[in-house]
Every structure is written in C-alpha cells, then in structure tokens.
Amino acid sequence: xxxxxxxxxxxxxxxxxxxxxxxxxxxxxxxxxxxxxxxxxxxxxxxxxxxxxxxxxxxxxxxxxxxxxxxxxxxxxxxxxxxxxxxxxxxxxxxxxxxxxxxxxxxxxxxxxxxxxxxxxxxxxxxxxxxxxxxxxxxxxxxxxxxxxxxxxxxxxxxxxxxxx
Length: 165
Hints:
By secondary structure, the protein is α/β, with parallel strands linked by helices. The chain is built from 7 helices and 6 strands; from the N terminus they run H-E-H-E-H-E-H-E-H-E-H-E-H.
C-alpha cells in the first residue's frame, strides 16, 4: 500500500459516540482498537473522563472487545486502560503498525476483525491501514494538545483537503 492510500481512513466521523457500531458488527468487526489522547479524552489526561467511560460501556454492551493502543511511553495510558477495564498496548510506535499487530495478537484477532479508531491521520490512521484494519478518524476531543501534535495538524489539513475526507 502506498503512503497516500495509507493516510485515507475508511470512515471519518465527529466523535466515537457518533460511530454506527451495528454497521461495524455487520462488517464482521468484533475488536475495537482505541487511541486515548484526543480520541476518548483530553490530551495527556491522567484518568478517564465520563465520555471515555460511556464509549467503553457502549462498546462493551454491544459485545466488542477493546484495547487501548497508545504511543505514550509512560504508565499513564496503561493506568487509564486499567481504570476503564480494558487491555493496553503502550509504546505502540504509530504510524508503524507494530503496536497494532501486538494488540491484534493479544486480542487473538485478525486485522479484518478489527477497527482502529483515532484522531490523527499520521499516527492512528496510517498504523491501522498498514496493519490491514478498518480505520475510523474522529475529530479531536479538544483543541488543547501538546506542541508536537499541534505542529502536525496543518499538514493533516492539507492531506484531508487533497484526499477529500
């Protein structure tokens, strides 16, 4: 897959809550891989929000297995995942698909059974696409972000404009 195709998500939605999870089930998806920062909660949060708890609860009630897939290099993401009651892959190295593959192995799932959900084209979408998962790009949870993510956003806008998503 070329890099330009890898940057285009399968679906773009406003938030995790606006995803039609029944449609995902109809596609044969049973595992949801989730980014946390600015997908399920604020960037660099140290605990889940009500929103993240609601999202996980909804997915759980629908019978999805879940795993947090985070680039974070600290215990922050694994602590959040533990509070949410789901497993976690840290040091995921997105956009490299290795962290997604580790999550798939842990969940005993094939790429076609999984969906990667995140707010960044250059990390979440590319990692999901390169691993063969269905990908959903959500709009960021909050405008407050760490500087190196803010620096990538103008380039994401350019990609989104030319790729029309």
